[in-house]
Amino acid sequence: MVAYLLENNPASAAVAEKVGLTLRHRGPDAGNPDPSAVRLVSADRELSETELAATMR
Questions:
Q1: Superkingdom of the source (predicted)?
Q2: Which 3-state string (H, E, C) describes 12-57?
Q3: 8, 9, 11, 46, 54 from 40: Cα distances, Å
Q4: How far apart are CA 6 and CA 3, in angstroms?
Q5: Separation CA 19–CA 9 (nearest Å)
Q6: Which residues does 32 contact at the CB level (< 8 Å), separation at least 6?
Q7: Which residues, at least 6 apart from 37, have a Cβ–Cβ distance to it below 8 Å?
Q8: Burial of 54 (0-12, 13-18, 19+ CB in 10 A)
Q9: Fewer CB within 10 Å: C terminus or N terminus of the chain?
């Protein structure tokens, strides 16, 4: 299971943590009109580079 969240949404991050997901990536949100937007990816397992890249599309 993978959660794709924005950092400024603490409620969604709390739910992801509550169901046992672990933060796997934190970085800029490419394509977001807000240049300060930060994207979080949490998952129930380690993600390969390919899996993370697919999630970030």
A1: Bacteria
A2: HHHHHHHCCCEEEEEEECCCCCCCCCEEEEEECCCCCHHHHHHHHC
A3: 10, 10, 13, 14, 14
A4: 10
A5: 16
A6: 6, 39
A7: 6, 7, 8, 28, 29
A8: exposed
A9: C
Count of all residues that appear for the chain in the document: 57
Please determine, for residue 57, whether its predicted confidence score (pLDDT) is greater than 90.
no
For 4, the token pair is: 């794709």
pLDDT tens profile 4-55: 999 999 999 999 999 999 999 999 998 899 999 999 999 999 999 999 999 9
pTM of the shown model = 0.88
Q: What are phi and psi of 25, to 5 degrees?
A: -155, 140
